[in-house]
Write a structure and sequence with these properties.
759 residues, alpha+beta, 43% helix, binds adenosine-5'-triphosphate, binds magnesium ion
């Protein structure tokens, strides 16, 4: 077929030289015959496939598949792949690897509901936004028995299991992508596969049942995703000596607390709050004095209270059922629901201004009394905690009255802190049930589902932390795929033209350097009582403006050059969110409550011995008492990286094909920007230009030596290996002999394996 096409080439078009060809295509198997078909970028930014009709000098005439005839600059044309390569499983198989060919290949597959594609070692998953028939027991069995080999999350999970057993090394599956790209669904699909290995006593079912709980408490409807995870999650699944699941442990990162008390219009707060209002049985409703969701201020500030296709009341029962499965007792569940109701009612507390200095008192109405009842405190102590603050000024203990704004902030701080503690407590309970406390002997596979890079029109402290985390993960990805690869070549004495890859160490330094890095400066400013968002911005500008990754902006803003692009952050709220303080008055209030709340706060409860401590205290573990949110997050991240570095990683990049959360729509620009952000384009290029298959001399000689037709004089592995290569006529530019290993270009081992399997 190719021959025919090639013979039909108009002589003019064979003279076309493709500018970008060498950059992308290092060893095209079709290189000799110039294609008739080419890609050209239209004025609307889209790529169009067309036939080159003629070329005169710098201009070419192209007839597009839509029937248009265009005059374009020859330089702007990119060669198209031959049709037999349409929709290949692995982007690495493409002869021409440039943006349009990658985009087209993914779209070609996506249009047929083939949402998974390999990009060398990385699995690309495009969100179908509909049910696709790719999952379930038949598929799981197919991959287990290695009857199926198409790119799939199951294949990745299967590889992780095999490599864990074979190499006795822990594995990780690192899933990334932007909001709505399908990370959480992908993580669940991977868990489903691992769970199919079984474990006995229902542990695998228990592990799966953590999902509805964590999603109820940690996910919310946002503008980008109806079920957006507002926290990062690492689940480590443990395997016993027999290769069956023995337990699991979950670690969460940085829950978005602010959503409890405020959310943008069209978005929702955490699912569980609506589920409780919709689904609580009558007795519970009465006990907690529950109303409909729209009654609560925290929930009715957004006009959105339901999600199309989701029944909150049904979900509530599913969550209760899941809590039973992970052994959260009925009594504890009741406490959890009472605390959720307290959070809701806190938002409905009314504050009344009592003097002309804007001081307030809590109105003695249903709101305040319900909160007091649910928490198990008196109305007076609640009023006191929300309207006054104890302080030490010049060694004198005083009680300061709060203004309306201060009191509202205090009330919201209380609600956020109760919710966040509840979330942590639930994770702890789950971990106890999954047996993370037990001593572990076997191996593990960790699945990381963490927020992708975020860049909005307005970016705050949350985006700052999230993007910092992504910067770290990107480095892990880079290091693993590029550096390690390159090092291995060099170590083995392989002649391999060094490949430049984007290293983001500079940006990480901008964040982490001490004392003049973003995190240190933020922490320093957070300790000054008089610091403001503006002084923070000024300070950053003053110290970091010479850093190429940093740009000071006017007012309360600064820009960071991340690996995935520039992001402008607004410092408004940075200091407060970073300090995350709970005044001692609130801590004392919580400690005095007769509900089971103190137990939920357990070790976190910090009761000061001094009745009038000089400053605000933090409601968190004693050891992390002085840690800011950013520093604590950095610590968690370092720990995470350390953990991941001791594993063999498997990367899945999720791609969102459109911003409408609709099936069947593929927006090229959107996909392309994500492919760039997550390094997929770079990976393909690098993997293909190198020697992705490698084997030690020994292993190669052992594996294929018996295929030799003539015996070799010397029996050393290298001589045997070379004899095999010669016998199978593997061309010299298709492999290289290293000190310890043989390195092969893509697809070279195939013939040997086929022969071996037939023998
Ligand atoms: P966030 O960062 O906001 O948490 P996410 O990457 O975790 O986003 P998901 O919640 O996993 O995104 O996916 C968003 C939605 O896309 C899902 O609720 C589901 O409707 C759909 N979806 C994702 N993956 C699949 C899939 N494999 N099959 C069918 N639908 C999917
Ligand atoms: Mg998610």
């Amino acid at each position: 077929k190719l021959e025919e096409d090639a013979n039909g080439v108009d002589s003019a078009s064979s003279r076309i030289s493709f500018q970008n060809e060498s950059k992308w295509d290092d060893h095209s198997s079709y290189g000799a015959k110039k294609t008739l078909q080419a890609w050209c970028r239209l004025s609307n930014g889209k790529w169009a496939l067309g036939k080159v009709l003629s070329t005169t000098g710098s201009e070419s005439v192209l007839s597009t598949s839509e029937g248009k005839v265009l005059k374009v600059s020859t330089e702007s044309l990119l060669p198209a792949n031959p049709e037999i390569l349409n929709g290949v499983d692995d982007l690495m198989q493409l002869s021409y690897l440039h943006e349009p060919s990658v985009l087209y290949n993914l779209q070609y597959r996506y249009d047929q509901d083939i949402i998974y594609t390999k990009a060398g070692p990385v699995l690309v998953a495009i969100n179908p936004f509909k049910k696709v028939r790719l999952y379930g027991n038949d598929f799981i069995e197919g991959y287990k028995r290695q009857k199926m080999d198409k790119p799939h999350v199951y294949a990745i999970a299967d590889a992780a299991i095999r490599e864990m057993k074979r190499d006795e090394v822990n594995q990780s599956i690192i899933i990334s992508g932007e909001s709505g790209a399908g990370k959480t669904e992908t993580a669940k699909i991977a868990m489903q596969y691992l769970a199919s290995l079984g474990g006995g006593s229902g542990i695998e079912y228990e592990i799966l049942q953590t999902n509805p709980i964590l999603e109820a408490f940690g996910n919310a409807k946002t503008a980008r995703n109806n079920n957006s995870s507002r926290f990062g999650k690492l689940i480590e699944i443990h395997f016993g000596a027999t290769g069956r699941i023995s337990g699991a442990a979950i670690q969460t990162f940085l829950l978005e607390k602010s959503r409890v008390v405020q959310c943008a219009d069209g978005e929702r707060s955490y699912h569980i709050l609506y589920q409780l209002c919709a689904g609580a049985p009558k007795s519970l409703r009465e006990k907690l004095n529950l109303r409909k969701a729209e009654f609560y201020k925290y929930l009715n500030q957004s006009s959105c209270r339901s999600i199309v296709g989701v029944d909150d009341s049904e979900m509530f029962f599913a969550v209760m059922e899941a809590m039973n499965v992970v052994h959260i007792s009925k009594e504890d569940q009741d406490t959890v629901f009472a605390m959720l109701a307290a959070v809701l009612w806190l938002g409905n507390i009314s504050l009344k201004v009592i003097d002309n200095e804007n001081h307030i008192t809590v109105v003695s109405d249903e709101g305040a009394h319900t909160v007091a009842k649910l928490l198990g405190c008196t109305f007076d102590s609640l009023n006191m905690a929300l309207s006054t603050r104890k302080m030490t000024v010049r060694n004198e203990k005083i009680v300061q009255k709060l203004t309306l704004e201060q009191a509202m902030d205090t009330r919201d701080a209380l609600a956020k802190s109760i919710y966040a503690s509840l979330f942590e407590w639930i994770v702890e309970q789950i971990n106890m049930s999954l047996g993370s406390g037990k001593r572990r002997t076997g191996r593990s596979i960790s699945i990381l589902d963490i927020y992708g890079f975020e860049s909005f029109t307005r970016n705050s402290f949350e985006q700052f932390c999230i993007n910092y985390a992504n910067e770290r993960l990107q480095q892990h990805f880079n290091r693993h795929l590029f550096k390690l690869e390159q090092e291995e070549y060099i170590e083995d004495g392989i002649d391999w033209a060094k490949v430049d890859f984007e290293d983001n160490q500079d940006c990480l330094n901008l964040f982490e350097k001490k004392p003049l890095g973003l995190l240190s400066l933020l922490d320093e400013e957070s300790t000054f009582p008089n610091a403001t968002d503006l002084t923070l911005a000024t300070k950053l500008k003053q110290h970091l403006d010479s850093n190429p990754c940093f740009k000071g902006e006017r007012g309360k803003a600064f820009t960071v050059s991340h690996y995935a692009g520039e992001v402008m952050y607004n410092t408004a709220g940075f200091l407060e969110k970073n300090r995350d303080l709970l005044h001692v008055d609130l801590i004392q209030l919580l400690a005095s409550c007769t509900c089971n709340l103190p137990q939920i706060f357990a070790a976190k409860m910090l009761v000061q011995s001094d009745d009038y401590p000089s400053g605000p205290a933090r409601l968190s573990g004693a050891d992390s008492q002085k840690l800011s949110v950013a520093t604590k997050f950095k610590g968690q991240l370092f720990q995470l990286m350390q953990r991941l570095e001791s594993t063999t990683p498997h990367f899945i990049r999720c791609i969102k094909p459109n911003s409408l959360q609709q099936p069947g729509i593929y927006e090229q620009e959107l996909v392309l920007s994500q492919l760039k952000c997550c390094g997929v384009l770079e990976v393909v290029r690098i993997s293909r230009s190198g020697y992705p298959t490698r084997m030690t001399h020994q292993k190669f000689a052992r594996r294929y030596g018996f295929l030799l037709l003539e015996s070799v004089a010397s029996q050393d592995p290298l001589s045997v290996s070379v004899a095999i290569l010669l016998q199978f006529n593997i061309l010299p530019d298709m492999y290289q002999v290293g000190y310890t290993k043989l390195f092969f270009r893509t697809g070279q081992i195939g013939l040997l394996e086929d022969t071996r399997n037939r023998t």
